Amino acid sequence: MKVLLLGATGNLGLRLVAALLTHGHSVVAFVRSPKKLESLIPASVYQQITVVQGDATDSAAIKKAILDAGCDAVVNTAGLAALPPWGKSDLPKIFRAVVDAAREAGAERKKPLRAWLLAGLGALYFPGSETLLSNYIPIYLEHRQNLQLLQSLPQNTIDWSLLCPAVMTPEGSEIKVPTASSHAKLIGNAWSPPSWRDSWVKHIPLIGKVILCVMNAQRYKTTLEQNAEFIADDLESDESRWIGVTVGVIDPSK
Length: 254
Ligand SMILES: NC(=O)c1ccc[n+]([C@@H]2O[C@H](COP(=O)([O-])OP(=O)(O)OC[C@H]3O[C@@H](n4cnc5c(N)ncnc54)[C@H](OP(=O)(O)O)[C@@H]3O)[C@@H](O)[C@H]2O)c1
What we know:
By secondary structure, the protein is an alpha/beta fold. It has helices at residues 11-22, 34-40, 43-46, 59-69, 91-109, 133-136, 142-151, 208-217, 224-234, and strands spanning 2-6, 26-31, 50-53, 73-76, 113-118, 158-163, 168-169, 187-190, 222-223, 245-250. The relative contact order is 0.17.
């Protein structure tokens, strides 16, 4: 696919440049600073991508980039969610700009765009319930309003998927193509975390489910390379089981 990638200079974005190219996709990187991107990846990789300069809060510029390059998909890793419950960042503004651009570009080309967007573990449901995990551990709350925005979209406007990883760490700092994660392929699950470990502790009044979330959270640490591979691999097919859902991921060894 031809993919517009926002946030290519970030931790996950850099790994996505390598993973997308490795999976045979064409990459159009939408960045604030092409110079910064050029300094972060080898020249041999930079030469394989198209770079568009722009701000990810500028919906019209993102839409233009999609249509000018003839992109079929958008991957957004731009914007970092604020940590404390009261924190604010540009992420909701960026998220809305990307969604609006993808929706309008899809309408213009008369085919919905495929889109992968990022949230965190808290945007998944506590297994067996319709309560978000971030109700129990109220951090990174900006992801919730982004999820609400996606859920408010009429059908067939964007073929979206919302990846909800816990902490992602780097396997290494070198960006190369072809790339491969040295870890196993992630296992995904729609709407709630895969392989959740249940326990009687959840029945402790008031704090039981909070304790269970904390007990489980450590197991959902993954690597940036694993998540980049997960998205790049999924975009190889027109049919995806992840369209219209939040996606939790876990390393099978956990
Ligand atoms: N890292 C984790 O462990 C983790 C875990 C769960 C979820 N997430 C989510 O995953 C996403 C990616 O995380 P990350 O660690 O890769 O973040 P990151 O390293 O902080 O990268 C953020 C990227 O956003 C870009 N950006 C910010 N504002 C922009 C704007 N106005 N216009 C264009 N680009 C802009 C930055 O570009 P510049 O280089 O120009 O600043 C950078 O490339 C985030 O939404 C984060 O909340 C991360």
